[in-house]
Amino acid sequence: MLGKKLVTAQKRGETRALCLGLGMVACSTMMYFFIGITVVPFYTKSVWTTETVCKVLKANIKDKVLCPNSEGSEDEDIFPYPCLQVWVNLTASGQEVMLYQTEDTLERNPKCSYVPGKSENSKEVKARIETIASNFKKYQTFPCYYDPGGTQTNVILSRLYPPKGLLFAFLWPTLMFTGGCLIIVLVKISQYVSVLSAWQ
After folding, report:
1. How far apart are CA 137 and CA 155, in angstroms?
2. CA distance 125 to 127
3. Among 60, 104, 101, residue whose Cα is nearest residue 82
4. Which of 100, 124, 146, 195 could pair covalently with 105 via S-S, beta carbons 3.0-4.6 A apart?
């Protein structure tokens, strides 16, 4: 009687463990799919892949512009802010090009090097842009990214999805997938050992 209860409890435990493993594999697969349709396209779309050194030539604050600078934008998404334009000397080619914060900055407004968030206060935005401009004048040499293929003649300060960020995004689903597979393998080994023990 006790042996039957132990066998029943063992089978329940194996079933729960197997469901846990399969659930982890399924969740990791969904995470892979989500990353594949969200992060990976932005990473492959970016052409600013080579790091070099940029030297500031001039950093000017122009009159206020509207953001975003694109057609078909909703009224609540349009707001004025001072336009910071930073021109740098690209060490790799010696060209004078415009610097943008990220790939998204160029898409939102190609006239400005920095685009603030629309939820920020206008005074805070002005103070922040003035601080950024003064920092560029103070620290004139810094790493930046350019397009080695020459498709884009401008440079960006930082990439939205660098290789390290992409690897980190795939780290958690990989660990979950590995853990799920390990649980399934251990359950199958346990079942195989139980069958061998029953035949002896």
Report:
1. 17
2. 5
3. 60
4. 100
The Cβ of residue 92 has, within 10 Å, a number of other Cβ atoms equal to 14
Q: Tell me the torsion sign for CA atoms 63, 68, 73, 77.
A: negative
Give the mean model confidence (pLDDT) for residues 114-128. Answer: 80
The total of other beta-carbon atoms located within 10 Å of residue 22's CB is: 15
Q: Which of 18, 98, 22 is nearest to 54 (CA)?
A: 98
76: pLDDT strictly greater than 50: no
Is 153 within 8 Å of 95 (Cβ atoms)?
yes
Rounded Cα gap, residues 174 and 143, in angstroms: 31
The confidence score (pLDDT) of residue 116 equals: 85
pLDDT above 50: residue 62: yes
Lowest mean pLDDT among 1-5, 11-15, 166-170: 1-5
